[in-house]
């Protein structure tokens, strides 16, 4: 089970929508695990038709003889699905707003995979000008059901303290 | 006009689908300009509902009092639309397959903007192991109708020589 790898100190995906996270709730090394998303060829082709109409994303036939060999999701589809999972697994109170980010797709996302996002906070840098804010760096690995990464995504985001009441 | 900035040596978007590009057709400094894409709030909300359901991407009301102030597209939506434009404006014969990439969103994409992608080849590194291939680095700026960047995206992609016949 992937859950045995120690991704246990994030919020439970089922309850996370009710527990928005503020800066005080975060620490370096903190981990989050998302709920799963199952991807099929219908989703892959629908996304590709709208945003990335290249033969290897549109049909099995079109993928033959290409770098991919068989139908593969657009990397942007993997990225968008990852965002969808992150919105629930890392519910920062003021939202997830990426300022700067890096992406890699170590292997293709294929129909039939079950994806899940494993996130870890790698750095928290308090703002000099805004005492209620810090830049939080997070590394997000989107893994298939075998635990292999299809996407590695690092991002820096502004996160705010709980408002004084 | 944005076209006066010198983005003239890429293929004409209208004819590009018929002129796939091979490694021999590319050089450092080569530029490409995409056809325009007009984005409206309907597109923004539809994408957000599926992939990035955060209040500032879902409605004007939800965006009030947030970092964005008014409705803004998900950065992943800007990225996906950029890909859609690139597929036509930089028609590499064996496809656009990103190995490694960096993204930044200098300002939000808003309803009513007309986007266009301006691309430039910044490096071509021949492969040592595969004589018919090189890694091509490309910088892609997605700009609004005022010429201001909403996304800067740099990517390295494998590009192949024209097959011997």
From TrEMBL, chains A, B:
Give the Pfam families listed for this entry. Answer: MaoC_dehydratas
- The residues that cross the membrane are none
InterPro entries attached here?
HotDog_dom_sf, MaoC-like_dom, MCH/BMMD
- Please give the residue ranges the record annotates as the region Disordered: 1-20
Listed Gene3D superfamilies: Hotdog Thioesterase
MaoC-like domain span: 28-134
**Which protein, by its recorded name, is this?**
MaoC family dehydratase
Q: What is the lineage of its organism?
A: Bacteria, Pseudomonadati, Pseudomonadota, Alphaproteobacteria, Sphingomonadales
